[in-house]
Amino acid sequence: MGTTKLITMYGSPWSERVRWAFAFKRLPYEKQNYEPGVDEDAVKKLTGQAMVPVLITGDKVIPDSSAILDWLEEAKPEPALLPKSAKERAIVTLWEETALNALGTHGRTLITGRLLRIDDPEAQKSGKYFAEKYGYSEFAEEQSRLTVTRILTSVRDTLSGRQYLVGDTFTRADVTVAAMLMLLKAAPQEFFVFTPEVRFVYLDQLGDDPAFSEVFAWRDRMYKDHRGEVVKP
Ligand SMILES: N[C@@H](CCC(=O)N[C@@H](CS)C(=O)NCC(=O)O)C(=O)O
């Protein structure tokens, strides 16, 4: 198969879902760290777009976490991260899209708002970078909070009485939702290493809301049972 390299950003859940899937399938890879505001041009030159994760394998360069997971499922089908039935696969895809394009993007708006309110030049700088790149306003933040609250409610109610989001096995739906939840509250230090200052930035009031404690307890259980390694920079 040759060398497989992943360009990822440590604190990004889009990168985390890909690292998680590689660890789950025990596929080794070379790491390259992406720094926002520094490595954007290089990634743009390589892929034609300015986001990570990016997979480089053989003569292929694959941006986009879902395309990377599709490549991975084909390259290493076992242990499977997709259910066998087409119906269950369809539901996995719906959860993934909700997690990536609603929970993730609205979660990023919430974290951008938090960064902009922190009285620290470094936090302000990254807040401004993400605000400009992904579009931020106080109104958008209020709307994002409503959307994220609705999704957390759906995750909680779907998980009631169940171990996994789809069927009775761990799938890409669980990987993706569990990874995206870091934007509201990071996984505990024993699974995901962050300095206390950075961990604080990742904590939203929704992450500590008792109404959603079962969702974050489930997320921590997914890390404990399936993450397979302590995540370190
Ligand atoms: N559709 C892409 C989205 C990835 C994405 O949103 N990446 C953001 C995560 S915050 C990123 O690379 N940010 C760094 C930057 O904007 O410089 C995927 O699923 O991989």
Tell me the CATH architecture of the largest domain: Up-down Bundle
- Please summarize the sheet with the most strands: 4 strands, mixed
Structural class: alpha+beta
In terms of DSSP E residues, the strand content is 5-15%
User: What would you report as the Rg, rounded to the nearest angstrom?
Assistant: 17 Å
Can you tell me the residue ranges where pLDDT is under 50 for at least 5 consecutive residues? none
How much is the average pLDDT? 97
Give the spatial strand order of the biggest sheet: 2-1-3-4
Integer tally of domains: 2
Kindly state the number of beta strands.
Answer: 4
H/E order of the elements?
EHEHEEHHHHHHH
How far apart the termini lie comes to 26 Å
List the bound ligands.
Answer: glutathione
Write the layout of secondary structure elements.
Blueprint: E1 4-8, H1 13-24, E2 30-33, H2 40-47, E3 54-57, E4 60-63, H3 65-75, H4 86-117, H5 121-134, H6 138-159, H7 172-180, H8 196-201, H9 213-226
Parallel strand pairs: 1-2
Antiparallel strand pairs: 1-3, 3-4
Give an overview in words.
The protein is of the alpha+beta class and about 230 residues long. It contains nine helices and four strands, in the order E-H-E-H-E-E-H-H-H-H-H-H-H. It has two domains: about 5-75, Glutaredoxin, CATH 3.40.30; about 85-225, Up-down Bundle (Glutathione S-transferase Yfyf (Class Pi), Chain A, domain 2). The protein has helices at about 15-25, 40-45, 65-75, 85-115, 120-135, 140-160, 170-180, 195-200, 215-225; strands spanning about 5-10, 30-35, 55, 60-65. Helix 1 packs parallel to helix 3 (about 65-75) and helix 4 (about 85-115) packs parallel to helix 7. The radius of gyration is 17 Å and the shape is globular. Glutathione binds next to helix 3 and helix 4.
